[in-house]
Amino acid sequence: MSDSRIDFLVQPGGALVGRLRVPGDKSISHRSVMLGALAEGRTAAEGLLEGEDVLRTVNAFRAMGVRVDGPRAGHVEIEGVGLHGLKAPAAPLDMGNSGTAMRLMAGILAGQAFDSELVGDPSLSKRPMKRVAEPLNRMGAEIRTEEGGRPPLRISGGRALSAIRYALPVPSAQVKSALLLAGLYAKGETAVTEPAPTRDHTERMLRGFGYAVEVSGSTVRLSGGGRLKACRIDVPADISSAAFFLVGASIAPGADIVLEHVGMNPTRVGVLTILGLMGADIGIENARESGGEPVADLRVRASRLRGIRIPPEQVPLAIDEFPALLVAAACAEGETVLSGAEELRVKESDRIAATAAGLRALGIDARETPDGMIVRGGGAFRSGTVESLGDHRIAMAFAMAGLRSQGPITIRDCKNVDTSFPGFVELARRAGLGITIRGGR
Ligand code: S3P
């Protein structure tokens, strides 16, 4: 990966029209590769996200002796080696920008016979890993972090794991998943209790691979010592990527788009609930099941949005969508208050600080609070320059601001858009956004 930086330049105005399908779900794509590699037999997936984050996961398994054909045009085939078939990698595994890859891999690697090391890019190297290292060590793993619980993670192999019961201190699907994946290798029944519902793809997909997972109330349980059986997976379009277009079409006068085959897992649809409360016009069409996940086509038309108090229970269900939702809030009549969202401070960037700074750079009254933000909406964006801080979701959220702007908007440092949404600029341009790429600094 080169160090070259790129900026987005977005011209004011335009509307989003037509039908489009955004790339595959990132969470499901990572898990498809991980579970496929650990299963017995050949797993095939369609619609896989070919973003850099997922390719890091693919490369990590290749480095541990797993044959992966593709991905090409969303199709990938993985020759599973079984839970005990991975080989020691020759070098540290580089997870790039991906917190999901690093945290879930920590759970898998904790149960292996060999030593391993997980490293990441400068953003990932600042993110908290004690949240996985500490409970995994309680299971008998030996994972060392850097000062302050940061990466790299050095994982000693050959440790016998025993199941624990663990109450998550923060709602985190990544920590839950890391413990469940380690639980596959542990003696006894691992039980993870969540303080609030988070995305449940690991639970669903383990079942899809034939593994018994019990869910009762807020607790997920599984017992170690079983086997995963290869399966076929249809990855839906990522609702977190669709979110930029849901917001863009809601704020752009004259917009009317259909987003096809969007994943509608109930633990992911907070963005629809929140936009609905704000008065967005989103129709759910052709709702159906596909490969164990609900999907639908979403028709979005421009509407007058109003500011709201975002219900705190929706926060974990929309955790990746707040940069986009706060851009919507800036276009809404009245005040929007986000609270209970301190987790946003430890994403690919501090998304509370980055979003507030971006909104202010475009002339919006946005006030940070320790756990959220207060945005006074109602007007249009002013021309300005937004620092994405290398965060893909900040970059794409502010690209949509162009649809309601009085002048051009520059967004800096947008290369990491490729981690979750390769082809974003082309797709957005085809839909009607006046966006171009510039060589940057
Ligand atoms: C993810 C869980 C969430 C989310 C991330 C993907 C996953 O992170 O923000 O983009 O695939 O499990 P946390 O578990 O840190 O909330």
UniProtKB/TrEMBL annotation:
CDD domains found in the cross-reference section: EPSP_synthase
Catalytic activity from the UniProt record: 3-phosphoshikimate + phosphoenolpyruvate = 5-O-(1-carboxyvinyl)-3-phosphoshikimate + phosphate
Residues reported to bind 3-phosphoshikimate: K26, S27, R31, S172, Q174, D320, K347
Residue ranges of domain Enolpyruvate transferase in the record: 10-426
Complex formation: Monomer.
Similarity remark: Belongs to the EPSP synthase family.
Protein name (Swiss-Prot/TrEMBL): 3-phosphoshikimate 1-carboxyvinyltransferase
Organism in which the protein naturally occurs: Sulfurifustis variabilis
Organism phylogeny: Bacteria, Pseudomonadati, Pseudomonadota, Gammaproteobacteria, Acidiferrobacterales
